[in-house]
Amino acid sequence: MAVRACGLIIYRRLQPAPSSKVTDSIEYLLLQTSYGTHHWTPPKGHVDPGEDDLQTAFRETQEEAGLQASQLTLIEGYKKELHYPVRGKPKTVVYWLAEMKDHNTEIKLSEEHQAFQWLKLEDACKFAEYEDMQAMLKEVHEFLCSRE
């Protein structure tokens, strides 16, 4: 059976400069793992027994980044599943999209992560080494731009 994990792609909007497009003020939260290759990823984790996928996404975000569900706005209409092998076993990760209500909210990392960054799309794609993660970030950005 495939390992199942869930998480949130979290973004914040900074105050855009008068000359810039609104979408230029969007930054994405990535966390750097403190294990393995120290890769960068949105907050995510394995589904616990009795938990539904969205509950898992919010719990993991709270555990890994210190963000409560009340500090986030879940964005309707975006949900994405990524499928990839981990140590030879299939893994499915389901992501939702959430906006920070207050862009100054402090991020509090768990021991699972050693660093975090708020990144504009181009930099977020550089930090996220995996092609499917880069493609998802671009897709999210297009989705947000289409809603402006």
Characterize this entry briefly:
Helices cover about 25% and strands about 40% of the residues. It is an alpha+beta fold.
Spell out the key features of this protein.
148 residues; alpha+beta; Nucleoside Triphosphate Pyrophosphohydrolase; seven-stranded mixed β-sheet; 3 helices; globular; EC 3.6.1.17; nucleotide-binding
Report on the architecture of this protein.
The chain is of the alpha+beta class and 148 residues long. It has a single domain (28-87, 96-146), classed as Alpha-Beta Complex (Nucleoside Triphosphate Pyrophosphohydrolase), CATH 3.90.79. It has helices at 53-65, 121-127, 131-147; strands spanning 3-13, 26-33, 40-41, 44-46, 72-86, 89-100, 113-119. Strands 1, 2, 3, 4, 5, 6 and 7 form a seven-stranded mixed sheet that branches. A hairpin with a 6-residue loop joins strand 2 (26-33) and strand 3 (40-41). The longest helix is centred in the last third of the chain and has 17 residues, at 131-147. The chain is globular and about 50 Å long. It starts with a strand and ends with a helix.
Task: Describe the protein's topology.
Blueprint: E1 3-13, E2 26-33, E3 40-41, E4 44-46, H1 53-65, E5 72-86, E6 89-100, E7 113-119, H2 121-127, H3 131-147
Helix pairs in contact: 2-3
